[in-house]
From TrEMBL:
UniProt-listed Enzyme Commission number(s): 2.1.1.-
Enzyme class, UniProt record, top EC level: transferase
Keywords of the record: Cytoplasm, Methyltransferase, S-adenosyl-L-methionine, Transferase
Species whose genome carries this gene: Polypedilum vanderplanki
Taxonomic classification: Eukaryota, Metazoa, Ecdysozoa, Arthropoda, Hexapoda
Presence of the UniProt keyword Hydrolase in the record: no
InterPro entries from the UniProt entry: Efm4/METTL10 (IPR026635), Methyltranfer_dom (IPR025714), SAM-dependent_MTases_sf (IPR029063)
GO molecular function: protein-lysine N-methyltransferase activity
GO terms under biological process: methylation
Domain of life: Eukaryota
Function text: S-adenosyl-L-methionine-dependent protein-lysine N-methyltransferase that methylates elongation factor 1-alpha.
Record protein name field: Protein-lysine N-methyltransferase PVAND_012991
Similarity remark: Belongs to the class I-like SAM-binding methyltransferase superfamily. EFM4 family.
One Pfam family hit: Methyltransf_31
């Protein structure tokens, strides 16, 4: 059995489906009332950095990209603006998907596919993708009860969702580069750390988030 992560987070409401259903129900009401699409995790700059990095990799504009825990779909709308065309968003909150679909219709982006899916359950019906993107979803799983086991399930499911040589891009505010690398080491090789915004405090430099691209392993260790 693998050793547990070097960081153990205390379970809290951010790791519960009821919290997110309630949050997105409120965001749907706000969107219908005033057109506010809701919160963008880690702000828009984090999305911009990921898209710029994908462009530098000469990622095909028709590469299949899935956003894991898509929320209001903001990342996919930005990818669409950057002319990526094969986009899918999944979330286990039905209210999240309802909100994302409403925004997609209003923004005339019907080509983006949104589906309700629990990433800790069977994901085979989703098919396979060239890029899997996670911004905050692994963080939320880390706040669930029995998080260690659930993170293992999630990691295996992401592996199964990727095509051979597929890329897994994750942005986290709870886990460091070392912790993320360790968490995914059974299924992925670290490919590149994507630059994040830094801050300075007390003479020390830190980062508010960590973004890493992993490559799917060609063979798994027995």
């Amino acid at each position: 059995m693998e050793e547990e992560d070097t960081i153990n987070l205390n379970p809290c409401e951010l790791g519960t489906k009821s919290y997110w259903d309630s949050a997105y129900e409120t965001e749907i009401k706000n969107y219908l009332d005033n057109g506010d699409i809701g919160e963008i995790w880690f702000d828009e700059s984090s999305q911009t950095r990921i898209i710029k990095w994908l462009n530098k990799q000469d990622t095909s504009k028709d590469a299949s990209i899935i956003d894991l825990g898509t929320g209001n779909g903001a990342m996919l709308f930005e990818l669409s603006e950057a002319e990526y065309t094969n986009l899918t968003g999944v979330d286990y909150s039905e209210k999240s998907i309802e909100l994302a679909q409403k925004i997609a219709i209003d923004q005339d982006q019907p080509h983006i596919t949104f589906k309700v899916c629990d990433l800790l359950a069977d994901v085979t019906e989703l098919g396979r993708f060239d890029v899997c993107h996670d911004k905050g979803t692994f963080d939320a799983i880390g706040l669930m009860n029995d998080a260690f086991d659930k993170k293992e399930i999630y990691t295996k499911n992401v592996f199964d969702l990727l095509n051979d040589k597929g890329l897994f891009i994750i942005t986290s505010c709870n886990f460091t580069e070392l912790e993320l690398t360790k968490s995914f080491s059974n299924y992925f090789d670290k490919f590149e750390v994507i630059p994040s915004q830094t801050f300075q405090f007390g003479g020390k430099v830190g980062k508010t988030t960590t973004s890493i691209c992993f490559k799917k392993k060609e063979t798994l260790s027995k």
